[in-house]
Design brief:
Structural class: alpha+beta
Number of strands: 12
Largest sheet: 4 strands, mixed
Helix content: 25-40%
Low-confidence stretches: none
Strand content: 15-25%
Mean pLDDT: 89
Distance between the termini: 90 Å
Shape: elongated
Number of helices: 11
Length: 304
Amino acid sequence: MELGDLSTRPFTIAQAEQLGLTRRRIAKAADAGLLTRWMRGIYSESGLTDSLDLRASVVALATSEYHIITDRTAAWLHGADAFAMDEHDVMPPIETCVLRGHNPTRRSEADGRTRDLAPWDIMRLGGLHVTTPLRTALDLGCHLRQRDAFATMCALAGRGGFGVAELTRELPRFRRRRGVIQCRMLAPWVEPQVESPREAWVLFELRSAGLPAPEAQLWVEVDGVARYRLDFAYRHARVCIEYDGEHHDDPLQRRLDEERRAELRALGWTVIVVRRGDFTGLRLDAWIREVHRALEPSYGTRRW
């Protein structure tokens, strides 16, 4: 048995011994830099990219079958990144829980808690027990900051195939839980078609300002052909709101954006652009006021 025959996923000493490797050989390989020692008794081949799914696999080996990956770690495994930018440089502890009656992990690599989960709250993902996208969205809707919670809920809805109906159906189970008031507010606003966290922030601010829900990813047809896709739109008022992220800083992309928006305005659309720095203070107030003004009706059916 050679070290290269081991799986590229983490493994325990016991698993390696079953394949014919001795503890002494494993220790020598780790000392030589051929293996990475993650924690006591758990190794992987050196050179694997440090990531949350790798660390989740490590924790799964270090904990019992009763431990379940939850919260931001679960969201990440489902394809929704709920971590702050600086947390990607120093990987945060894996978030796990156990059902009541079992002891949460005390390992430093994991953040262990106790939680009440129904059988339908848990699924298998890559060999791990993980909370489902729906349950993860509800948990994070309770205890992340508002805009981050909403962005993650939208992302999980898009990846998990659920929407407002499923969220509101499950909410009574969270009665009296810390953060449930926030989750109740956010759930009816969730839009699975939102394509990025900052787009979700735009939608959050629109709804927080008391504006009606726009349509997400609306296609505008020209001569019967779908030509322009809008981030958010009020089709009857012909008002659209678009978010320009980092890739819009490219000069070529900026020129293409300007040409596209000029064509939309020629078709009678009001185009409101939101950028990265437009989510606080006067800049936030400015574009929200612009949306309010654009939606004011220019004609009424009442005589007086």
